[in-house]
Structures are given as structure tokens and as C-alpha cells.
């Protein structure tokens, strides 16, 4: 029996369809935040000024905090930090490839642009989660939203400043050409989680499993990925163009507006379990100590989020 | 104000930018605060890989926050140093990149494994806490003021470092062993944190006479050993045989100075120690890679006809 959008079951009696939808949604949210934070921290002690160093560290910690909130929702399904990060198969991570891309040394245009592209998408998806049928998700949206607004403002300040300078704008443009296709993967559906069906093991794994439709039908999220993607394009394309940047996308935005087409997507999309080579390296680095010390439990030092 | 008046008046938080101070005082204070600020930056540089390598989200968050705090301390301290009118922040940061800026001996050593993190975050930061607590009474008011905030935040860092140590020393046999080995390697350096005995310290007399420095190296080292030898033992660490440490009748400790490698210490003090140079140059390369951003900010500022804004941060 399918639950009505506003009648999602209690954590203890979720049926298989609900479990899979909840797991898939939370993993994509949490993994995005976690991996983005991991990359942001690379700018600590390497940013252009002490002030920008502090600001980016701040954003990294905010994103880590959000990852903690979303991973914690997965605790309702019995997952622990060990299963979700330190002992998880790297192929099972579902973040967009936008967040896993390595930074080229000194390319400050990248974190600024990446943050803008990501934070606009983040705002839209939070809006679509504010009335989630899963109360814990809806409850956490407000806290996250208040911080994301600041991130976007920070990114835009920098973008406008860099775009105003010819040489820096060229760097922005080159970075945009690199990042844009990966940003589109933010709106791609996820492959089923490991063990959820027989498709695991195939790469790229089937993404047309209907899980994404379930996420919306069950009211976990109130907008579809297509809707979110189109809305995102309708914001970022004109904004970037207003900075004299050329956005690498077909179509002129008339009539039906822009849409995310398969042709515009990169080979690796993250959401489907395929990742760029940089991901394997990053995963090795952040699990290094855990493996080196033979740990079997990540250390919790803070209380679980309320 | 002449130097005799400075010495007469020298008391806690006695002097501020409103005072006309002799060059000798301003230079000594600049040297001391710049050293402190540089140490914050290079300490952060040393610890940053462990944000990534931290073995849990919570530890990662704490490490990222710690590294951020150290950069914040650097920012505060450069401001306190700048207010003496001898050097600008840019000059100090450039000197640090060029290998002319001096900083703490411990931050010249590379750090490779998580088990080393409490050597910095507990012992070195603990040692720094002792010195910093006395500096809240230094005669340069902006420096003392910066110390209020720094000491407050360092308190958390030391607690976190202690917790990492406790966890490692109550972990697997392998963890305990690795931690003990790291401790043996770091222990002499940690003791050298306080520098040579007072009679070998070049800057001590003047800095003490004008109230910049509040306690001698010997006193600080003693107080540190008093407090940290029992703590190390409590977590199951064995104090290495060398350097030999003798307990005096009054309960204080005397370190056999000849057991410490002072050649290395003074090579480090000149920024000529190979591993340390690697760190100085690593940071320099990272800074050069973002020169273009600072240049953009400067062009932006000169176009606006004003001073480089530090907004957008």
C-alpha cells in the first residue's frame, strides 16, 4: 500500500519502498555536503588572505555540520558513521561529481564558483524539503538554510569582484567550462543503494529504478529533480551571463527555459555510482588514519544532533 | 618617552599605540609578537593535513576549527604587531614566505601520522598556554588583549589534544606503541620549546626589563614539566631516559641541557633546518599560487582610489 504524501511511516515500520527512498535521498544530501566540506578544507592555510582563509574554513565546518545532520537521519535506518563513511564502499557514495573534483593549486576561482553553483542548488532543494513528509528532514531544513544564505552571499561577492577584473574573469571562465557539466549532475537521479536490488555491481548502475519517483510520490521531497534543475538554470545562467561569463549550455532560455539534457552531462555523474579518479584518491586520504590504526569505530565527541 | 621611563613604568598592559615609545621597545615588541604570529600560521600549516586524516567527522570538525582558530590568532597577533608601527602585516607575511620570518622550533618538524597530533595539540599547545597566560600581563596592551582571546580558545585545543591522547593510549596495543614512539621523538623538542636556559637567551634581559616578557624560560619550563610529566604518565606514556630530568629537593625539575641537541635548535632558529625549510617553502608555494587573487584585490582597490578592502570575506 502506498502511503499518501503526508503519511510517511514512523521510522520503525517503514516498508521496503519507503526505506529505499529515504536512504537514497539522505545519502545524496549527506554525501554532497561531506565531500564538498572535505574539498573546502584544502583551502585552509592556503587561501589568498587570512580573512578568506577564515571564511572558507567556516563554510567547510558548516557543510560538515550539515553532513552530520543528514547522516544522523540515516541512523533511523540503522546506519552508523562507520557504515556511512569510514567503512563504506567508495562506489556506494552518491555525491555529485561537482563536489569531488580536486582543486588546481591556487585556483581560487574554483571554490568561489563551485560554492555559488552548489549553494543555489542547495537553497532550492532545501525549499523542496521544508515540507517533507519525513518530519526529521523538515525539522533540519531551517537550521541549514540560515547558513546557506551566507555562503551564497560570500560566493557572489567574490564572483563579482573577480569578474570585474579581466584577467581574473578569464580564470573564472576556464573554471566554469570545467565545472558546469559536473554541476548538472546535482540534479541526476541516484542508482539504488547497495543491496537494494540485483543491479548492484553493474557500472554504471541502473538509475531508472523508480526510486526518484518514489522520493517525490512519498512526499519526502516536494519537487522533482527536473523541476529543481530547470529552476537552478533559470537562476545561475542569467546571473553568470550578467558577469560576462559564457555558460556552456545549449538553448537560449526562451519559451520553456533551459533544461538539463543527457548530452550536457559528463561521463561520470557521481549519483549513479560512477566517479572521477580523484574520488578514489580522496577516499583513501580521509580513511587513511582509520585504516592505519585499525579502528572499528569512528570517535564521537559531540552529542547526536537533536 | 625614553627607555629609562619605559623601564620604570613597565607594568602589565602599560603601553598602547597612544604612547610615544622608543624604537628599541617597538622593535623588541614587534620581534616577539611577529614570532608568535608566525608560529600560529606555521602551526596551522603543520596540522592542516590532519583535518582530512581525522578518523571521524567529529574529530574532523574539531581539527578544522582548531586550524581556523590558529589562523585567527595569527590575524589578531599581526594586528597587535602592526600597531607598533615597525612592520606591516604584508611585510611580516612576506618575510615568513621568504624564509626570513622566525617561528617556534616545534613547527619546523614534519608530522606524518595521526598519533603525532597530540604531541602538538596537547603538549606543545599546553606549553604555549603556560607562556601565553603570562603574556596577558605583557606591557604592550594590544598584545595582552590578543592573549585574552587566544588563551580562551587554546584551552579548548589543549582539551581536544588531551582527549586524542587519552583515546590513543586506551586504544589497541599498536596505537599505544605508535603513540609512545611519537612521544619519544617529540619530547626533546617539546622541552626545547622553552628555549635555552636564561643565561643563553639573547633577548630575554631587555624584553623582561621593559615588561614585554613576564617569566623566564627556566620558570616556564619548570612549571610545564611540573604539570605535564604527571599528565603524560597518567595516560601511560613513559618519559624517555634522555634528556635526563632531575627532580630537585623543592619538587621542581632540572633538565640536563647537554642531553638536548642545541645545534639542531639553533639551526632551526636560523631557518636552516631542512625539514623546516620544506614547510616554509611549501607554504610559500601555496601563497604564490594565489598571488593573482591578491593582485586582483589591489587593482580593485586602486581603481576605487582607496585602501584595499578586506570585505568579501
From TrEMBL, chain A:
Gene Ontology CC terms, in alphabetical order: cytosol
Coiled coil feature spans: none
An individual GO BP term: phenylacetate catabolic process
Residue spans crossing the bilayer: none
InterPro entries according to UniProt: Aromatic_CoA_ox/epox, Ferritin-like, Ferritin-like_SF, PaaA_PaaC, PaaC
Pfam families assigned to the protein according to its UniProt record, in alphabetical order: PaaA_PaaC
Superkingdom as given in the UniProt entry: Archaea
Name of the protein in question: Phenylacetate-CoA oxygenase subunit PaaI
Organism per entry: Natrialba asiatica (strain ATCC 700177 / DSM 12278 / JCM 9576 / FERM P-10747 / NBRC 102637 / 172P1)
Automatic annotation (TrEMBL), chain B:
GO molecular function terms attached to this record: phenylacetyl-CoA 1,2-epoxidase activity
GO BP terms: phenylacetate catabolic process
Stored InterPro entries: Aromatic_CoA_ox/epox, Ferritin-like, Ferritin-like_SF, PaaA, PaaA_PaaC
A GO CC term attached to the entry: cytosol
NCBIfam families: PA_CoA_Oxy1
Protein name in the entry: Phenylacetate-CoA oxygenase subunit PaaA
Gene behind this protein: paaA
Amino acid at each position: 500500500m502506498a502511503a499518501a504524501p503526508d503519511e510517511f511511516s514512523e521510522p520503525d515500520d517503514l516498508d521496503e519502498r519507503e526505506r529505499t527512498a529515504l536512504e537514497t535521498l539522505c545519502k545524496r544530501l549527506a554525501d554532497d555536503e561531506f565531500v564538498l566540506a572535505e574539498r573546502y578544507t584544502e583551502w585552509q592555510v592556503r587561501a589568498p588572505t587570512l580573512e578568506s582563509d577564515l571564511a572558507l574554513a567556516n563554510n567547510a565546518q558548516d557543510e560538515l555540520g550539515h553532513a552530520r545532520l543528514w547522516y544522523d537521519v540515516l541512523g533511523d535506518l540503522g546506519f552508523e558513521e562507520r557504515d556511512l563513511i569510514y567503512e563504506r564502499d567508495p562506489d556506494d557514495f552518491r555525491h555529485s561529481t561537482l563536489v569531488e573534483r580536486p582543486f588546481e593549486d591556487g585556483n581560487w576561482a574554483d571554490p568561489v564558483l563551485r560554492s555559488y553553483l552548489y549553494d543555489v542548488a542547495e537553497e532550492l532543494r532545501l525549499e523542496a524539503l521544508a515540507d517533507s513528509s519525513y518530519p526529521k528532514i523538515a525539522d533540519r531544513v531551517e537550521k541549514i538554510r540560515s547558513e546557506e544564505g551566507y555562503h551564497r552571499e560570500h560566493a557572489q561577492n567574490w564572483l563579482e569582484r573577480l569578474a570585474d577584473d579581466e584577467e581574473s574573469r578569464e580564470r573564472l571562465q576556464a573554471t566554469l567550462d570545467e565545472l558546469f557539466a559536473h554541476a548538472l549532475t546535482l540534479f541526476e537521479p541516484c542508482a539504488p543503494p547497495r543491496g537494494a536490488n540485483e543491479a548492484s555491481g553493474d557500472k554504471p548502475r541502473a538509475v531508472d529504478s523508480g526510486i526518484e519517483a518514489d522520493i517525490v510520490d512519498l512526499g519526502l521531497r516536494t519537487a522533482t529533480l527536473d523541476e529543481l534543475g530547470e529552476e537552478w538554470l533559470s537562476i545561475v545562467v542569467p546571473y553568470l551571463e550578467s558577469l560576462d561569463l559564457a555558460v556552456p549550455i545549449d538553448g537560449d532560455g526562451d519559451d520553456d527555459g533551459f533544461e538539463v539534457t543527457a548530452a550536457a552531462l559528463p561521463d561520470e555523474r557521481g549519483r549513479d555510482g560512477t566517479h572521477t579518479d580523484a574520488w578514489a584518491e580522496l577516499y583513501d586520504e580521509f580513511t587513511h588514519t582509520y585504516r592505519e590504526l585499525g579502528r572499528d569505530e569512528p570517535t564521537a565527541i559531540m552529542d547526536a544532533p537533536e | 618617552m625614553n627607555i629609562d621611563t619605559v623601564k620604570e613604568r613597565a607594568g602589565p598592559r602599560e603601553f598602547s599605540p597612544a604612547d610615544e615609545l622608543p624604537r628599541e621597545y617597538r622593535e623588541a615588541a614587534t620581534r616577539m609578537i611577529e614570532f608568535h604570529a608566525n608560529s600560529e600560521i606555521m602551526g596551522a600549516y603543520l596540522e592542516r593535513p590532519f583535518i582530512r586524516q581525522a578518523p571521524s567527522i567529529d574529530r574532523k570538525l574539531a581539527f578544522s576549527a582548531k586550524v581556523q582558530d590558529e589562523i585567527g590568532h595569527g590575524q589578531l597577533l599581526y594586528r597587535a604587531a602592526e600597531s607598533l608601527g615597525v612592520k606591516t602585516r604584508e611585510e611580516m607575511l612576506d618575510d615568513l614566505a621568504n624564509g626570513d620570518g622566525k617561528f617556534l622550533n616545534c613547527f619546523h618538524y614534519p608530522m606524518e601520522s595521526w598519533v603525532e597530533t597530540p604531541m602538538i595539540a596537547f603538549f606543545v599547545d599546553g606549553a604555549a598556554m603556560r607562556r601565553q597566560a603570562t603574556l596577558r600581563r605583557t606591557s604592550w596592551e594590544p598584545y595582552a588583549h590578543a592573549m585574552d582571546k587566544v588563551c580562551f580558545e587554546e584551552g579548548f585545543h589543549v582539551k581536544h589534544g588531551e582527549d586524542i591522547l587519552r583515546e590513543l593510549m586506551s586504544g589497541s596495543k599498536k596505537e599505544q606503541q605508535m603513540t609512545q614512539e611519537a612521544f619519544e621523538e617529540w619530547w626533546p623538542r617539546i622541552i626545547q620549546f622553552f628555549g635555552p636556559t636564561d643565561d643563553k637567551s639573547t633577548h630575554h634581559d631587555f624584553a623582561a626589563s621593559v615588561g614585554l616578557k613576564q617569566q623566564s624560560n627556566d620558570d616556564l619550563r619548570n612549571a610545564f614539566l611540573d604539570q605535564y610529566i604527571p599528565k603524560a604518565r597518567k595516560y601511560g606514556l613513559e618519559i624517555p631516559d634522555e634528556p635526563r630530568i632531575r627532580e630537585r629537593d623543592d619538587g621542581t625539575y632540572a633538565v640536563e641541557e647537554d642531553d638536548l641537541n642545541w645545534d639542531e635548535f639553533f639551526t632551526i632558529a636560523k631557518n636552516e633546518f631542512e625539514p623546516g625549510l620544506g614547510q616554509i617553502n611549501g607554504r610559500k608555494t601555496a601563497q604564490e599560487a594565489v598571488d593573482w587573487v591578491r593582485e586582483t584585490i589591489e587593482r580593485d582597490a586602486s581603481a576605487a582610489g582607496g585602501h584595499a578592502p578586506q570585505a568579501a570575506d
